[in-house]
């Protein structure tokens, strides 16, 4: 397995300075767009759609709390994972690799690059639903904010080459 | 040899087919198959689309309906057999005798494979399944040595054999194990789950990570060790003055190095475990095994696979294929 | 509802076997006895000679006798052993379907709880092949027992339920007793005979959990269906199966007989069960659709 880079501390601090409410709104918007374009994600969650998920990039000072009231995703940024039914934690690079299908969740889990706590079944359901959706976050951003996506595309490509972090859907998988 | 690959999701099915799977196996999203995990498996519509995709690429789809129907609720299992046939599946993989009899009578043209969950472990019973239920292929339980597999194939000319070559390893005769339900109330036979996620808790206790299954602690590891696999038989226990993996270490099966022996033993198909794994894992393992199978067919040396990091606990074994495992 | 004494799952010395069945024949109120080596063919030569002796003695005492097949048949020798059972002059209890390959179609046989009979379709198919008795798998909940007992009644198949004993949970190609002694199965030196009720396996927290018996894994807690007797009677279950342990099985059978006659669980029965159960630990979770290890105060 490729080793997973840690986010540089200055960058991490920068993210910590982001005002949480607007960032939450932006992430919620993105998540809703993803759910609308990939309706099978919510379907695959089954009864776990009622769970709250803490997505915790351990090299960032924030945690994303994902809930799906009435099947509509909502993301709230908090300092920690408190109050969530399950916590999926790992370096941002690990979580991105997972979303983009560049790594296997079980393998990350056994090597302890990924930590799962709380409602294991809900965490598994989310992981499997995301894996099946074959997401590409840049493609999704394209649908919410085309100018942002256009600006990000070359940066993402360069970063991906330099760091090995999966910022686009992994090629050769689909 | 035919490579039979796992697909827990439509995306994994496509990944497997594109990575070179000759066949893909999958199941419906309910308790009728032995990987009834959260977020996994197929609706009848997804199955039909998956079959169409696979057939377009020259691959087969085998549908596992391999749990044991609950008394009084057999109709769910019966409906799924009909749905598999309607979706164009190339075969169903069954374990229950009643279900085999039902399928043979009501879906005579739907090819029947015997699931590993039936644990048919010798030529006499394999031929019996062939005669009685028209079973064309048997997935062998993971309790046999290569020599025993060769002996089986010599005596079962009418029935093909399929063996596991990679992935999770049952140490018990499959379909005859209720360890999971003893601890959790849910079993592979009845619910399609072993040591189910709903009953697993990972708890950080000081510097240790404890894996709990139902009311029982099945393992505990220190900070730098791989996370414990949450399956009961891979747990760490004590007996008398001994502490350790009483049943099996945290290893997974990798028989890539003995593919030539398996070919010589007359095996028709090689099966990769892992419907619960990601599409990236499936693609990587299938690609590696396809290269190995192709090399074998061309009389070339086996390519060395780099599959260990994908394995549970990052260690592999050839399991029962070597006699000393017992 | 009557009592069946199941086959002894453990490796006992020939002398212990002889004394055990002699006493069962003379004193235990069981209607039938199933005997034979279920777990490991390597043990058989050590006590095989006792089988005809026990059969004769039990028959003379008026017991119905069935001979069990092995639970997992892989080797050529094991296939021959299984085939030879057919001509042994007693009814066969199949513990591995392999035995069916040798039984002439329609000939009567009994079905061990190690055979997966979970539903009416399978019961029907087994009945059509000649099954006369079926002891249901341990993990079935009462609801399934009721459905299957009803179906059995309609088809003339006696449906039996596990009443007492450490439960067989798994069978393997690997010998765990040998593994605990750093040996492999082929050079096990028959170490499983050191544990006539199985060797206990605890969790890292010291909780009693499982018991190994050669290639077999059993529950540590002893499954006991005493408190469920009224429900089992109402369901039309035709027999309870008692699995041999080193404790006083005669006293236990007598207590079961009295409780069945009374139509309810009795304190005497539960006391007798705790006396025989290793460590006095009982479980009944499966019949209540719970984890098998649980003890439900029903």
Automatic annotation (TrEMBL), chain A:
Spell out the SUPFAM superfamilies in the cross-references. Answer: SCP-like
InterPro entries annotated for this entry? SCP2_sterol-bd_dom (IPR003033), SCP2_sterol-bd_dom_sf (IPR036527)
| Signal sequence region | none
All copies of the SCP2 domain together span: 51-130
Name a Pfam family for this protein. Answer: SCP2
Q: What is this protein called?
A: Lipid carrier protein YhbT
- Organism, as annotated: Cereibacter johrii
Automatic annotation (TrEMBL), chain B:
Q: Which GO terms describe its molecular function?
A: peptidase activity
Protein's name in the database: Ubiquinone biosynthesis protein UbiU
Q: Which GO terms describe its biological process?
A: proteolysis
Keyword Lipoprotein, does the record have it? Answer: no
Briefly, what is this protein's role? Required for O(2)-independent ubiquinone (coenzyme Q) biosynthesis. Together with UbiV, is essential for the C6-hydroxylation reaction in the oxygen-independent ubiquinone biosynthesis pathway.
* Natural source organism: Cereibacter johrii
Cite the InterPro entries for this sequence. Answer: Peptidase_U32 (IPR001539), RNA/ubiquinone_mod_enzymes (IPR051454), UbiU (IPR043692)
What is known about its subunit structure?
Forms a heterodimer with UbiV.
Q: Which Pfam families match?
A: Peptidase_U32
Q: Where does this protein act, in terms of pathway?
A: Cofactor biosynthesis; ubiquinone biosynthesis
Q: Which UniProt keywords apply?
A: 4Fe-4S, Hydrolase, Iron, Iron-sulfur, Metal-binding, Protease, Ubiquinone biosynthesis
Highest taxon of source = Bacteria
**Annotated binding of [4Fe-4S] cluster, by residue:** 170, 177, 194, 233
Cofactors needed by this protein, per the record, are: [4Fe-4S] cluster
Task: State the family it belongs to.
Answer: Belongs to the peptidase U32 family. UbiU subfamily.
From TrEMBL, chain C:
Q: Which domain of life is it from?
A: Bacteria
Sequence similarity:
Belongs to the peptidase U32 family. UbiV subfamily.
> What job does this protein perform?
Required for O(2)-independent ubiquinone (coenzyme Q) biosynthesis. Together with UbiU, is essential for the C6-hydroxylation reaction in the oxygen-independent ubiquinone biosynthesis pathway.
Name the coenzymes or cofactors required.
Answer: [4Fe-4S] cluster
Write the record's keywords in alphabetical order, separated by commas. 4Fe-4S, Iron, Iron-sulfur, Metal-binding, Ubiquinone biosynthesis
Q: Which residues does [4Fe-4S] cluster bind?
A: 40, 175, 188, 192
Subunit structure, per the record?
Forms a heterodimer with UbiU.
Q: Know the name of this protein?
A: Ubiquinone biosynthesis protein UbiV
This protein's species is Cereibacter johrii
**In which pathway is this protein known to take part?**
Cofactor biosynthesis; ubiquinone biosynthesis
InterPro entries (alphabetical): Peptidase_U32 (IPR001539), RNA/ubiquinone_mod_enzymes (IPR051454), UbiV (IPR043693)
Q: What Pfam families does the record point to?
A: Peptidase_U32 (PF01136)
Which PANTHER family does the entry link to?
A: PEPTIDASE U32 FAMILY, UBIQUINONE BIOSYNTHESIS PROTEIN UBIV
């Amino acid at each position: 397995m490729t080793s997973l880079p840690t986010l540089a501390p200055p960058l991490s601090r920068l993210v910590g300075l982001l005002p949480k409410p607007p960032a939450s709104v932006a992430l919620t918007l993105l998540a809703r767009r993803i759910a609308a374009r990939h309706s099978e994600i919510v379907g695959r969650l089954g009864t776990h759609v009622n769970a709250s998920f803490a997505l915790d990039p351990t090299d960032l000072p924030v945690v994303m709390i994902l809930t799906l009231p009435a099947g509509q995703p909502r993301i709230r940024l908090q300092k920690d994972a408190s109050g969530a039914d399950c916590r999926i934690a790992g370096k941002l690079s690990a979580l991105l690799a997972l979303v983009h299908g560049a790594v296997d969740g079980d393998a990350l889990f056994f090597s302890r690059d990924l930590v799962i706590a709380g409602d294991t079944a809900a965490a598994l359901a989310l992981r499997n639903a995301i894996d099946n959706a074959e997401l590409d976050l840049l493609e999704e951003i394209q649908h919410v904010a085309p100018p942002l996506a256009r600006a990000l595309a070359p940066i993402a490509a360069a970063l991906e080459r330099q760091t090995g972090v999966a910022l686009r859907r992994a090629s050769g998988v689909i | 040899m035919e490579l039979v690959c796992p697909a827990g999701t439509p995306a994994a099915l496509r990944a497997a087919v594109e990575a070179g799977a000759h066949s893909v196996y999958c199941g419906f999203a309910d308790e009728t198959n032995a990987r009834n995990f959260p977020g996994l498996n197929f609706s009848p519509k997804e199955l039909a689309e998956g079959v169409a995709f696979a057939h377009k690429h020259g691959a087969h789809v085998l549908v596992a309906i391999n749990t044991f129907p609950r008394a009084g609720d057999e109709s769910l299992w019966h409906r799924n057999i009909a749905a598999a046939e309607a979706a164009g599946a190339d075969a169903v993989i069954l374990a229950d005798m009643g279900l085999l009899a039902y399928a043979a009578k009501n879906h005579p043209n739907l090819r029947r494979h015997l699931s590993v969950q039936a644990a048919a472990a010798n030529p006499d019973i394999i031929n019996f399944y062939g005669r009685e239920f028209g079973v064309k292929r048997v997935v062998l339980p993971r309790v046999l040595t290569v020599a025993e597999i060769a002996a089986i194939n010599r005596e079962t000319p009418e029935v093909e054999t399929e063996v596991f070559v990679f992935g999770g390893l049952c140490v018990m005769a499959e379909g005859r194990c209720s360890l999971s339900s003893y601890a959790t109330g849910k079993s592979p036979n009845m619910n399609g789950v072993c040591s189910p996620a709903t009953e697993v808790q990972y708890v950080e206790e000081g510097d240790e990570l404890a894996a709990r299954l139902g009311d029982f602690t099945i393992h505990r590891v220190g900070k730098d060790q791989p996370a414990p696999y949450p399956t009961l038989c891979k747990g760490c226990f004590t007996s008398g003055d001994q502490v350790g993996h009483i049943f099996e270490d945290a290893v997974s099966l990798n028989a890539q190095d003995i593919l030539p022996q398996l070919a010589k033993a007359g095996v028709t198909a090689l099966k990769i475990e892992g419907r619960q794994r990601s599409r990236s894992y499936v693609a990587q393992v299938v690609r590696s095994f396809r290269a190995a199978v192709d090399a074998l067919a061309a009389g070339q040396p086996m390519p060395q696979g780099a599959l260990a990091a994908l394995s549970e606990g990052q260690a592999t074994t050839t399991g029962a294929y070597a006699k000393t495992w017992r | 509802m009557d009592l069946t004494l199941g086959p002894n799952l453990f490796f006992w010395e020939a002398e212990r076997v002889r004394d055990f069945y002699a006493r069962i024949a003379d004193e235990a109120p069981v209607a039938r006895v199933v005997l034979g080596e279920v777990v490991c063919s390597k043990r058989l030569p050590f006590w095989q000679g006792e089988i005809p002796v026990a059969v004769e003695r039990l028959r003379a005492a008026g017991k119905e006798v069935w001979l069990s097949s092995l639970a997992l048949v892989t080797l050529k020798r094991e296939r021959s052993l299984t085939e030879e059972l057919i001509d042994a002059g007693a009814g066969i209890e199949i513990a591995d379907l392999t035995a069916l390959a040798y039984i002439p179609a329609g000939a009567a046989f009994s079905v061990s709880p190690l055979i997966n009979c979970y539903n009416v379709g399978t019961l029907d198919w087994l009945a059509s092949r000649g099954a006369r008795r079926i002891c249901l798998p341990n993990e079935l909940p009462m609801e399934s027992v009721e459905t299957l007992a009803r179906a059995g009644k309609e088809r003339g198949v006696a449906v039996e339920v596990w009443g007492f004993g450490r439960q067989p949970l798994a069978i393997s190609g690997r010998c765990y007793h040998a593994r605990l002694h750093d040996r492999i199965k082929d050079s096990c030196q028959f170490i499983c005979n050191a544990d006539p009720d199985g060797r206990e396996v605890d969790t890292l927290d010291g909780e009693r959990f499982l018991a190994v018996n050669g290639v077999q894994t059993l529950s540590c807690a002893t499954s006991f269906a005493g408190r469920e007797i009224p429900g089992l009677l109402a369901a039309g279950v035709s027999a309870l199966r008692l699995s041999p342990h080193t404790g006083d099985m005669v006293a236990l059978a007598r207590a079961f007989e009295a409780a069945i006659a009374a139509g309810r669980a009795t304190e005497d029965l539960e006391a007798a069960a705790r006396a025989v159960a290793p460590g006095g630990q009982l479980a009944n979770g499966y019949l209540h659709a719970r984890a098998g290890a649980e003890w439900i105060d029903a």
